[in-house]
């Protein structure tokens, strides 16, 4: 037996080789790449796991409603005011009242549901509802009434660190961002919620600070996540349903900042190492303490567990490069724990690769490899290719338009069965010959494109020390590596060889290998024996 590694995923295969048959002939290959073909259509999934908590009742008549008093003492929690509720799942709606009542009824879209009133609080479960809106959501007690407007669609949490937090205002130096601000139109079905950024040493029950959903427009997007807003805009265009975005990313935060204390204890006991500091390190823009594990989870995730979401956009990892080899274990634990805590085993994770910055990408390559490995194994995760983007001199690239489009496109492709406009170049097969190694690629028929003088491939005979591939031949959908080395490891997207002075001066040249549609080659790390 020998072992193949697909970005860290270990697959046991027969020692000889792979056989691919075509007609009456059979060609032997030393490696055949897994091809993810499990695209989902989650728009058809309906979560009835909490349906037993839903009680449908007869709607009140207009005469009964007229007898109730519109009151400021009957309050719908601020989260629900002008919000987007997650479609196709049971949502818990709640609030407060200062008056004793024997009933509480929520009416939406001509149907009514009853719930519980206890002390000064009330709550009502709604059944899975299809996308649409705006709808008037009315709340009735024995003597009072109140209402708000809501939409029903797909809701995403925008989490991670500064490249997710960075706002349209902070990125307006890029012409694409400036143009997006100027061209922004009022879209009430793309709704934005900025959480007040903070941390806590203990889990919080409620969202801290003002909670104010807004329609997206030129004014409201100015201080909202740049990549988050543009993701939502593109996804709404593709899906044509209301989209809700909840931004809670904190610059400088490590992955441990976003994990529950139970998960941190579990990982620490298993020998996983991660960033921990006794020093009080604050994120300079918001003065949030970011050095303590679980503080972000306690303040910015725990209070959201009462609500339902479609998924999490995760753009994080730059603060964990010092412990890159442990990142995958932490990511997998975080995803599993979030799905359990949100009571949603199909909570989506859209994983952003780290962009290029500075001269050493080896640790970033390991973290990007973790993202790709997790997505390969988890049908409810996908990766946003980003290793070819960024700014050599700025860890916060202001042009996030292409990245945001890719995030929306990959989300729509993998989870909603929407076609991509263009496919990415992907490794397909590897074959050894006496003169070297032939690499075959998918999604190219007109000719592979090199964007600079380096192909960016690296080879090794021990998996420890890699050398640049400099002697190669390009075919229509192949690259032949000429070498006498006993190659045991081939990778792309990990090393520093993709950087030249020309690329420092021209951000568009950050990756070496593209297809003719100018979609980059997806990174890979293959162990041949």
Tally the helices.
10
- Whole-number count of domains: 3
Unreliable parts: 1-25
Distance between the termini: 9 Å
Strand element count: 34
Q: Would you give the CATH topology of the largest domain?
A: Rossmann fold
- Outline: elongated
CATH class category name of the largest domain: Alpha Beta
CATH architecture of the largest domain: 3-Layer(aba) Sandwich
The SS-based structural class is alpha+beta
Compute the CA-based radius of gyration: 25 Å
Task: Give the secondary structure arrangement, pairings included.
Elements: E1 2-6, E2 9-13, E3 18-22, E4 25-29, E5 31-32, E6 55-57, H1 62-66, E7 69-70, E8 74-76, E9 84-86, E10 91-97, E11 105-108, E12 111-114, E13 116-118, E14 121-126, E15 132-140, E16 144-160, H2 162-165, H3 175-183, E17 187-194, E18 214-216, H4 226-239, E19 243-247, H5 261-269, E20 282-283, E21 288-289, H6 295-301, E22 311-315, H7 327-341, E23 348-352, H8 362-377, E24 381-384, H9 401-416, E25 426-432, E26 436-442, E27 449-450, E28 457-460, E29 467-468, E30 472-474, E31 478-482, E32 489-492, H10 501-505, E33 513-514, E34 524-527
What does this structure look like?
The structure is a single chain. The protein is an alpha+beta fold. It has three domains: 2-32 and 430-527, no CATH class; 47-150, Immunoglobulin-like; 153-416, Rossmann fold (3-Layer(aba) Sandwich), CATH 3.40.50.1110. Helices cover 19% and strands 30% of the residues. The protein contains ten helices and 34 strands. The strands form eight sheets. Strands 6, 7, 9, 11, 12, 15, 16, 17, 18, 19, 22, 23 and 24 form a 13-stranded mixed sheet that branches. α4 (226-239) packs across α9 (401-416) and α7 packs across α8. The model is unreliable at 1-25 (pLDDT under 50).
